[in-house]
Amino acid sequence: MNTSILHPDIQKFIIQNTGADVTKLALHKNPFPEVDWILILNQIEARTKAKEKLPTWFAEENIIYPNKISVEQTSSEKTAAYKAALISGTSLIDLTGGFGVDDYYFSKTFKVVAHCEINEDLSAIVKHNLQQFGVKNCFCYATDSTNILNESELKYDWIYIDPSRRNDSKGKVFMLKDCLPNVPELLDFYFEKSDSILIKTAPLLDISAGLTELKNVKNIHIIALENEVKELLFEIHKDYSGKITLKTANILKEKTETFEFLLDEEISYPLYDLPKKYLYEPNAAIMKSGGFDNVSIAFEMNKLHKHSHLYTSDELIDFPGRTFEIDKVISYSKNDMKTALLNQQANITTRNFPESVENIRKKWNIKNGGNLYCFFTTDKNNNKIVLICRKITQK
Asked: In what order do the strands lie in the sheet with 278-282?
C-alpha cells in the first residue's frame, strides 16, 4: 500500500478530478512527479466508481482505493447492509475479504469480525480504511484463510465466503467447484470451525446446480438492486435437513420488495385467464427464483400462460414487481399493429413471444421511450397478443 497518495495536495487533486475522463487526464503531465501517475489516476477512477456504489467510502476523507476491478467486484453498500441484517452473533470470519465492504457492515452486527485477504496490499488498504471509519472490532489477516482456520482453535458463529471463479473456468458452466476456495470440497472442514455458513455467489450461478454441490442448505437469498439481480446467498447450517426456503429481495430507493416460498413445496396449479384490468410483471429476483406458480397462488391472481410469467387481475394488488393498467389488448396481426402501434413511441417487453424487441421495433418502426408500455406475449389460448398499458407507481 502506497500511503504517499494521502498527501493533502494529492487528495485534493483526486477529489477535484473525480468524474473526469481518466484517459484524457493520463495525457497531462503528472503534477506530483514523486508519486506514480498511474496510481493517482487509479484512485480517481476507483473513487468515481464508488460514488453511487459506496457512498460511505466516497464521503470519507483519506480513503485508499484498490484497482478499479476490486471496486467493481465488491458488494454495494445496499446489498452489504442487507446481508448484515440477515445474520448476527459474537464472531464471524470472512474467508475472502476483498475490499471489506461486507465486513464493515458485519462489524455492526457481530462483536468480532476477521477479514482474511491473501493479497497483502489489499489487506493493508482495508485495514487503513477501517481505521478511518473508526471500526475497532474488525481484524485484518493478510494470509490464506485456510491457514487461519487451521492454526486457530476458535469456533466462529458464522463463516462468510465469496468464492471467485478460477481463470481456467472461463467458458465453462459456472459451478462452485470451479471457484476459489473450492467450497464443496472444503465444506466438512468449514463445519469443524462453524455451524453456520453464508456463501455469496454471482447471479450467473444456476440455483439447482448450486444445490447439487452443497448440503444442509436452509435458505437461499436472491438479492436484486433496482431490479437487477446482484447476488445469490446460500445459507447453510451444519445439522439442518429440512425444506429449503427461497427468499427474494428487490432493493429499491423507496422500499424493498420481498417474497419467499418453500422450494419443491406442493402447491395447487395456478389458474389461467385472458387479460383483465391490471397486468403484473415480477421483479428480477422473483424471476431468478423460478417461483412463478408460487406468486400466482400467493397473490391469488391469474397467469396469462404457463410460460409467459405475466399475471392479471380485476382488482389492484400490491405486487413485488411492475404494475400496469391495461388500456387495450390487440392481436399480433398486420391490421391491428398498423392501427395501434405503427410509427408510435413505446417501451417494449417480450414474454413467451417468438420475436425479439429489436425485430419488433424495426418491423413496426416503434421508437423507444414514452409513457406507453407494450407487452408482446402469448395468452392461455396460445394466441400471440399485445397488451398496451400504462404504468402504475405503487407506494
From this structure: 302-303, 311-313, 278-282, 321-331, 384-392, 372-378, 347-351
Please write the tens of the pLDDT for every residue from 117-146: 999 999 999 999 999 999 999 999 999 999
Around Cβ 347, how many Cβ atoms within 10 Å?
16
Give, for 247, the enclosing helix (H) or strand (E).
Answer: strand 245-251
DSSP 8-state class, residue 365: T
| Residue 307 exposure: Cα atoms within 13 Å on the Cβ side | 11
β-strands 138-141, 179-180 pairing = unpaired
C-alpha Rg value of the chain to the nearest Å: 25
In which element (H, E) is residue 217 found? strand 217-225
> For residue 266, what pLDDT is reported?
80
β-strand pairing of 347-351 with 372-378: parallel
Determine how many CB atoms are found less than 10 A away from the CB of residue 269.
Answer: 10
> How far is residue 330 from each of residues 223, 273, 278, 386, 390, measured CA to CA in Å?
35, 16, 15, 5, 15
**Do 338 and 317 meet the contact criterion of CB atoms below 8 Å apart?**
no
Q: Which tens digits make up the pLDDT trace of 12-48?
A: 999 999 999 999 999 999 999 999 999 999 999 999 9
Q: Which three cell numbers stand for residue 319?
A: 405486487
Name the residue type at position 245: T
How many other C-beta atoms are found inside a 10 Å radius of the C-beta of residue 343?
9
How many C-beta neighbours within 10 Å does residue 175 have?
17
**Dist CA 108 CA 353 (whole Å):** 47
Residue whose C-alpha is closest to residue 200's, from 210, 191, 190, 189: 210
Q: Measure the CA–CA gap between 27 and 14, rounded to whole angstroms.
A: 16
Q: What is the dihedral of CA 112, 114, 217, 289, to 10 degrees?
A: 100
